[in-house]
Structures are given as C-alpha cells and as structure tokens.
Specification:
Number of domains: 1
Distance between the termini: 43 Å
Oligomer: single chain
Order of helices and strands: EEEHEHEEEHEHEHEHEHHHEHH
Helix content: 25-40%
Strand order of the largest sheet: 3-4-5-8-9-10-11-12
Largest sheet: 8 strands, parallel, barrel
Structural class: alpha/beta
Number of strands: 12
Radius of gyration: 19 Å
CATH class: Alpha Beta
CATH superfamily: NADP-dependent oxidoreductase domain
CATH architecture: Alpha-Beta Barrel
C-alpha cells in the first residue's frame, strides 16, 4: 500500500490502520462484548501481513486489555515493526465507568502505564482521547504532552475529538501532529470547519469509525442488532435504533451494491469514501478476526467513480435527514 506523511511528523502511514477498540473486550462502559484474544491477535497479524503499518489503541479500551493484546501480538510478530499509537485522558472506575481526566499527574501516570502494557520505550503517537471544556485544564494537559515528547516518552503528540477552538489553544503551546475525529458517511460533522482547519494547519487527520462502528459493513441487520449482548455499547446507541436504523441499513445495502462492482465488501467502500477527502491522512479500521481484517483492508485500494460517489452521497444525505427526524 502507498503511504502518506502524517502531519508534521516523520511517520508515513498506510491508508488504513488497525483499530483496537473492539478487541478490548467486555467489562467496561463502551465495550463490544466478549472477544477472543487469540482471534484478536490473529486479526492484527493478518492486517500486518497485508501491509498495514500502524496500530491504534487506547488505555481505556478494555481498561488496559487492548494495549496488552497489542503487545502480545507484536511479541509474536516476525515482520517489520508497525507504529503503535495510543491515547490518554479517559480513566475508569471499578465498575468500568469512564470519566475524563487531563491533569498533569494523571496523564503522566497513564503514559507510564501504557508504556508498560505495550512493552515499548516510546509511543509513536500519543493522543489526548477527549477534550474538556475547561481551557486551563486543556492547556495543562497539552503542556504535559509536549513535555512527554521532549522526554522521549512519545515521538509525536496528537489530539482526538477536538474542535477548532481547542486545537487553536493547543497549537499556541506546542504543534499538533494529528487529529483523530469520527468520520463516516453518516457522521460528516467535521467537514465544514474541522477538516479544512487541519488541512490549512498541516495537521494530519486519522479518522475513526469510518464504517460507523459496523453499521456500514453490510454484515449488520436488524436480527444481528437485536442479538447483540447487553454489554455491547452499540445495542442502545441511537445509530443502531430507529428512526436512524432503517436509513442506515438502506445506505449499507447501496454500499454493498457498489462493492460488488469492485469485488469487495460494503465496509471497504465505506472506508474508501473517507479516504477521498484531501485532509484525511488515513482511516482506522477495526477487526476482531482475520476474515474481517482481510475484507475491510480492501478499502485502501478502491477507486470509486464519480457516479458511484454521487450515488453513495445522495443516499447518505437521505440517511442523515431521516435520522434527524423525531
């Protein structure tokens, strides 16, 4: 796969990276239900075999479990070492409920814990997972991130889910290498302001949930959603329920039709669409087994026609409009 430089860094990324949210497993607020660790390791290996050169995870995914699985996979991997990205700023309690914590001491503790779990000496890209409204706290957090970079604990530093005002405040302290925002055909909120700002400032954008957390894979249907375990956060998410669900499934069907023309899945088409935006450096693609990894990574090589793009975007607009109805 061709690579693209991430922001102001020396990291050249493949168009898709392996996302490790789901493999964190169950037992916490935003878990995806029980997962097979062996299958998770196999999925990572398959993605790397196909040429993916970066893995994105976070301390909060599975309350540290995702980072441990990434370390386990890399320990057994015999090929070139991929870049490893992780995040801080979301802590958890004994019940697995999460809360934001961006004070300097908390970030430093999280960094040391992530280095230990990942079994690395430095994190290739360290990101603040979610911002807080208090700008003074946000400035304290970004100052700490810059210090961690200076100390060699992080090679590059980025943010996730920040708006333009928050990025401007951070930029005044230290350069932002990357932004990680949610972006898909059904979540285009970042297009008017955030993506143009990133492009103008030279901030790389690595987008998450390009398949809308599984909705646009073509494998999701009403029966499967109804059968999701109670500890899968998607079961009660508005995107997976009416009035949005019907429109989203119709969009997924259109993506499946387009995918058939290219010999790939609906999910791969959904990923390919996000990569069309000039501000997007790469997309994070999650997989829980080798088969998922194989099918979804196809999105890196799809060349959608203008007609196909119009077809997809027209239906996506209808999907968003339907979802906004009471």
């Amino acid at each position: 796969m061709k690579t693209k430089r991430l922001g102001n860094s020396d990291l050249s990324l493949t168009p898709v990276g392996f996302g490790s949210w789901a493999i964190g497993g169950a037992g916490w607020q935003f878990g995806w239900g029980k997962q097979s660790d062996d299958q998770s390791v196999a999925a990572i290996h398959r993605a790397l075999e196909l040429g993916v050169n970066w893995i994105d995870t976070a301390a909060v995914y599975g309350m540290g479990h995702s980072e441990e699985i990434v370390a386990r996979a890399l320990a057994a991997w015999k090929g070139p070492r991929p870049y490893v990205f992780t995040k801080c700023g979301l802590r958890w309690d004994e019940q697995g409920r999460t809360h934001r914590a961006l004070d300097a001491a908390s970030i430093r503790l999280e960094c040391e814990d992530s280095l230990r779990r990942l079994k690395v000496e430095t994190i290739d890209l360290y990101q603040i997972h979610w911002p807080v409204e208090n700008m003074q706290t946000l400035e304290e957090a970004w100052t700490t991130m810059a210090q961690l970079q200076f100390e060699g604990k992080a090679r590059w530093i980025g943010v996730s889910n920040f708006d333009v005002a928050q990025m401007r405040r951070a930029q005044a302290i230290a350069p932002i290498t990357s932004l990680q925002p949610r972006y898909s055909l059904v979540h285009t909120e970042i297009e008017p302001e955030i993506l143009p700002f990133c492009r103008g400032e030279g901030i790389g954008a690595i987008v998450y949930s390009p398949m809308a957390s599984g909705l646009l894979t073509g494998a999701m249907n009403r029966e499967r959603i109804l059968s999701l375990p109670e500890d899968d956060w998607r079961k009660h998410d508005p995107d997976f329920n009416e009035p949005k669900l019907s429109a989203h499934l119709a969009l997924a069907e259109q993506l499946r039709v387009v995918g058939m023309r290219h010999g790939c899945s609906a999910g791969a088409v959904a990923v390919a669409w996000t990569l069309l935006h000039p501000a997007v450096t790469a997309a994070i693609v999650g997989a829980r087994n080798p088969e998922q990894a194989t099918g979804i990574i196809d999105g890196a090589g799809i060349n959608l026609t203008r007609t196909e793009i119009r077809e997809i975007e027209t239906l996506a607009e209808l999907s968003v409009e339907a979802g906004n109805q009471d």
